[in-house]
Design goal:
Radius of gyration: 12 Å
Largest sheet: none
Structural class: mainly alpha
Oligomer: single chain
Helix content: over 70%
Number of strands: 0
Number of domains: 1
Order of helices and strands: HHH
Strand content: under 5%
């Protein structure tokens, strides 16, 4: 169980870093990391662990793209 939590944290870190770089010119870092954390919580128990990183990226990216000011 602890390994799964560490893997989850690792995926959150990776996705957060990718999306911070993508949205750095249009959204605050705190907004990006908050959206990723909320998306991670929403995915809890909904998908297999092997798909977490990809699904987390897709969900958080979708939500960030829908925010006002997220487009250049």
């Amino acid at each position: 169980m602890a390994t799964t939590a560490r893997q989850s944290d690792h995926h959150v870190d990776i996705v957060s870093g990718e999306l911070v770089r993508e949205f750095q010119d249009v959204l605050p870092i705190s907004t990006v990391t908050d959206v990723v954390a909320i998306a991670r919580h929403d995915l809890e128990g909904q998908i297999v662990p092997e798909a977490l990183q990809e699904m987390l990226h897709r969900l958080a990216h979708h939500r960030l793209s829908a925010l006002p000011g997220s487009h250049r």
